[in-house]
Design brief:
Strand content: 15-25%
CATH superfamily: NADH:ubiquinone oxidoreductase-like, 20kDa subunit
CATH class: Alpha Beta
Bound molecules: iron/sulfur cluster
CATH architecture: 3-Layer(aba) Sandwich
Number of domains: 1
CATH topology: Rossmann fold
Largest sheet: 5 strands, parallel
Mean pLDDT: 88
Number of helices: 6
Strand order of the largest sheet: 2-1-3-4-5
Number of strands: 5
Structural class: alpha/beta
Helix content: 25-40%
Order of helices and strands: EHHEEHEHHEH
Shape: globular
Length: 169
């Protein structure tokens, strides 16, 4: 069986989800033997987005035109797209200000009255823009779920849906 071609990357995020993946030192060697890491800019510079992938694992929220362009490219180039972590799934930390102030006010508070503020819009989950095939939640996700995700992808399947406990008062 040919190795699965994998892309792992992040949009607007802290990179904590991708770092947790790199910290799975016990599980990674065996799992990566069945994968070809074609695009993983956090771990290896110089990767190019010029091929088709079996799966793309995407961390972070969509909040800039660059995020959106990368997300569309990954979606078009990948059979399976995974929303990886709370930011990708719900908007997470980046989206916490969405309900308290306008994006313009927020940018002005950070960058001052600059003539040209950076292009940015209200951070949103991946599913607001593209179809998502599998999700792994957590901030960051647990190692066990990461291992299950990689094992399922390497076997040509998707991880089983999980039900997460909901905290109540
Ligand atoms: Fe960072 Fe948490 Fe967002 Fe992952 S889900 S990118 S760890 S803030």
């Amino acid at each position: 069986m040919r190795p699965m071609k994998l892309a792992i990357t992040g949009l607007t995020a802290c990179s904590g989800c991708q770092l947790t993946l790199l910290n799975c030192e016990d599980e990674l060697p065996e799992l990566l033997a069945r994968c070809e890491l074609v695009y993983f800019p956090l771990a290896e510079s110089g990767n190019k987005l010029e091929v088709q992938f079996d799966a793309a694992i995407v961390e972070g929220a969509v909040s800039t035109p660059k995020d959106l362009e990368l997300l569309f490219r990954l979606r078009n180039a990948s059979k399976v797209l995974v929303a990886y972590g709370t930011c990708a799934l719900f908007g997470g930390v980046a989206a916490m200000n969405n309900m308290t102030c306008s994006r313009h006010d927020l940018l002005q508070a950070v960058f001052g009255a600059a003539e040209k503020l950076p292009e940015s819009f209200a951070p949103a989950p991946l599913a607001n823009y593209v179809s998502v095939d599998a999700v792994v939640t957590g901030c960051p996700p647990e190692k066990q779920e990461i291992a299950e995700l990689l094992a399922a992808l390497a076997a040509g399947t998707l991880p089983p849906p999980r039900s997460y406990p909901v905290c109540t008062e």
